[in-house]
Amino acid sequence: MNPVLKLLIDGGSLTTGQMAQVAGIAESEVQQHLEQLKKDRIFLGWRPVLDLSHEAAAAAAVRAVIEVKITPERGGGFNRLAERISRFDEVESCYLMSGGYDLLVFVKGTSLQKVAGFVSEKLSTIEGVLSTSTHFMLRCYKDQGFLLDHGEAPSARLNVAP
Amino acid sequence: MSDDPKRWVAGHVATLPKSGIRDFFELVAKMKGQDVISLGVGEPDFVTPWHIREAAIFALERGKTYYTSNLGLIELRRAIETYVAEHFGVSYRPEDEIIVTVGVSEALDLAFRAFCNPGDKVLYHQPCYVSYHPSIALVHGQGIAVPTFAKDNFALTAEALRAAWQPGAKILMLNLPCNPTGGTCSREQLEKIAAFCREKDLLVLSDEIYSELTFEGVHTSIASLPGMAERTIFLHGFSKAFAMTGWRIGYACGPAALIDAMMKVHQYSMMCASIIAQEAALEALTRGWDGVLKMREQYHRRRDLVVRRFNEIGLKCHSPRGSFYAFPDVTASGLTEKQFAVGLLEKEKVAVVPGTAFGENGTGHVRACFATSYEQLIEACDRIERFVEAQPC
After folding, report:
1. N or C: which end of chain B has fewer CB within 10 A?
2. CA geometry: angle at B115 spanning B98 and B262, to 5°?
3. Which residues of chain B does A24 touch, with a Cβ-Cβ cutoff of 8 Å?
4. Residue B327 to chain A, least CA–CA distance (Å)
5. Is B369 exposed, middle or buried (0-12, 13-18, 19+ CB in 10 A)?
6. Which of B41, B179, B294 lies nearest to residue A160, judging by beta carbons?
7. Which of A125-129, A143-147, B107-111, B235-239 shows the lowest mean pLDDT across its residues?
8. What's the CA gap between B379 and B375, in Å, rounded?
9. pLDDT band per the 50, 70, 90 thresholds, residue B17
10. Same domain as B97, residue B188
11. Which of these, B241, B112, B128, lies nearest to B178 by C-alpha position?
12. Which of B231, B259, B288 lies at the terminal end of a domain, its last residue?
């Protein structure tokens, strides 16, 4: 397996310089691997994980998940509509789901009105969208593997032990 | 009459030297508040996986607050039976061949107290974990250190064992992979050691606490070799592989008559291991293996990083096949291991432990634990490099 991909998957938040040290290769080689992974559309980009309860980070703090029922199309199934919905800037993630609805859409916006406007004016008016059910997120406890509140207590590990 | 309170301290305890680690701990403690990176620890940096902690909380909620059987919860002993058979290839009966203890430390103490008469000789390889020699001294046994060498990657060799053996030797203490060297033995080396033990009728106490953290090849337990299960006490626990040091939970497996002898000492001293820790251990054995593999992979990469950096810096370092310790030779710096450790701490604020804290055969080496984050390891290596470059020679 590509050593850089392995570190991306489970190496934590390493800089490219640190990745180079851990993998035992030159930093330029790490960059090359990253470029190749981007070309192959395996590695799509970096995103920060922010605690949006902090004022400073709360630029687009209103988030919602929307359950969307859509009509599948002959030949393309759900793909064309799902891709169309995914292209909106407001949509952070979009998944095809099994179960009671078809798409699960994660949406962000700067205000409740903006998100509500997106749902009522854009999303639900797309031809083929049968219904939407919007759930606003109230509080985040864990995001992409990071505990938001206190996480672990500061390490009480002794500095020297047998 | 003297009024010195020390007059009440037993002679063999009064003469017992304090752990060399203790001195160094005091030194590091004085630097509190400064930006010290510690490679001086002897435990994982991972917190116990949540599912294990949660199982302990659940046990408390269900009111599991009582003593358990002296041997430990039967469910846990059954899980240990399955785990040991699967991972080490030895079968023990949960009813009378397994005892759950307060860490391997207690199991070891029980073994020495149960099997060592005053004056009995105990062979142990050295450098080694700090408590082996004192534990032998506490039961009035006589410890015989068998040296291991950097040229053998600190594996114990049958030749060194034969050279150190003395008439009257009764027990061989093994710790493979080894704290502090990370050394371990191949199956062929173990077979020779096993043959020697059968020849000299030695009882083997095998502390295999780091066995899951074996990075290359497969760990072989001496207990799994032909004719060895009947003369081996297999000692193991949860501290390292499952990141459960503070839970203090371990176990010993062996022939029923020997486990029964250990149980006698245990029932009159400890009575039983904490039920909360036992419940957590049961969860660890039942559902914890994926977590072990993940942690092992991290240790493996960290090992490769620090060993490569040490060698680049000019501190010759063998690649430890197991454990989370590197044991580089620091003599190229022109310093003794103590000068190196103290100088590095004072000048660059990195704590490592002088090899002589683990016996005189650790001369010229320091122990550096790589159970810490990549960021910290890289920074520590940079500082060590700066420190070595600043030495006059």
Report:
1. N
2. 30
3. 304-305, 308
4. 14
5. buried
6. B41
7. A143-147
8. 6
9. confident
10. yes
11. B128
12. B288
Same-domain check for residues B234 and B318: no
**Which CATH number goes with the domain that contains B24?**
3.90.1150.10
Neighbours of B23 (CB within 10 A): 13
Q: Does B303 contact chain A (CB < 8 Å)? A: no
Q: Compute mean pLDDT per 10 residues along chain A, 162 residues long, and list them.
A: 87 85 92 94 89 79 94 91 94 96 95 93 94 94 83 74 82
CATH 3.30.200.20 fits A55-140, yes or no: no
Scanning A110-149 for CB atoms below 8 A from B yields none
Per domain, the residue ranges of chain A are 3-39, 55-140
Per-residue pLDDT, A11: 66
Taking one residue from A and the other from B, the number of pairs with CB-CB distance under 8 angstroms is: 62
Q: In the predicted model, is pLDDT for residue B135 greater than 80? A: yes
Contact B295, B44 (CB under 8 A): yes
DSSP alpha helix (H) spans, chain B: 11-14, 20-29, 50-61, 74-88, 103-115, 132-138, 158-164, 187-199, 256-269, 275-287, 289-313, 337-348, 374-389
User: Is the CB of A24 inside 8 Å of chain B's CB atoms?
Assistant: yes
In chain A, whose CA is at the least distance from the CA of B371? A157
pLDDT of residue B214: 96
Residue B389, CB half-sphere, CA atoms under 13 Å: how many? 9
Collapse the DSSP code of B229 into the 3-class scheme (helix H, G, I; strand E, B; otherwise coil) and give the result.
Answer: helix
In this structure, the answer to whether residues B343 and B382 fall within a common structural domain is yes
* B24 at A interface, C-beta within 8 A: yes
Q: What's this model's pTM, rounded to 2 decimal places?
A: 0.89
Any idea what the CATH number is for the domain that residue B143 is in? 3.40.640.10
Comparing A61 with B201, the larger pLDDT belongs to B201
